[in-house]
Structure formats: structure tokens, C-alpha cells
Amino acid sequence: AHPKRPAHLDKRHREMLRSMDPREWAALVLPILQSKISALDDSLEAQAMFADISSGFGIPIGSMSSSMPQRSQRMLILTLRSMSLKSLLAAAQRGLSQCSQGVDEVVDVLLQHLRKMAGPAPKPIEQRLPQL
What we know:
The structure is a single chain. The model has no long low-confidence stretch (mean pLDDT 78). The two termini are 29 Å apart. With 132 residues, the protein is mainly alpha-helical. The chain contains seven helices and no strands.
């Protein structure tokens, strides 16, 4: 069996996100990002970093009213939810940095914090196998 490929935004989803108003984009992506960050690290430090990211938009999280059709919106949300936190942060960094100052730096600091919380990456299997 083939391993499942990581979820990513296809061309249609990327176009949908590009065509959205920045506040609408943030209202769609930020709640998903917040839940993924909280699931990984619910510390006050991580919450403060997320607040720094979302504060530039002045919108209550979850107050989405979109002009896109409901089915398309649901499919996009499902894809965003299935993406890894790293992929979602990268997409958020690209999208949000166009409309809010300082997002790049805050996202970088948040990524470093989450990496520190996760610990060192596992060694490749070749290094874990006993030498014969």
C-alpha cells in the first residue's frame, strides 16, 4: 500500500484564497490554525503568539461570511483542516503577510517555539539500526 500523501492546496483552492478579501481569508484560516496550535501546545506563550498573528485583522475568530458557494467553502475548509500545521502555517504566512505587518517574524518565532516543544526530530532509520 502507498502511504497517504500530505494534504495540500490544489490550484482551485489557491485561486479561491487569492480572490478572497484579506479579512475574509483570515476569518477562514485563523480558527483552523488556532485549533491546530492549541492541540499541539496550549501554553500561554503559544496563545500569545497566535494572538499577535490574528490581532492585525481586528476580526472576531469564526465570524466568516463568505461570497463563495457553500460547497466550495466546505471543501476548502476540509482541505485546510487536513493539512499539517507546518503546511498551514506556511500558507498562512504567505497569505497574511500581504495584509498585516510583522506576520512573517511572528510566524517564524511560533514555528521555532513549536519545534522546541516537540523536541528533536527522530533519527533516520539507518542510524537507529545496529551495525552488523
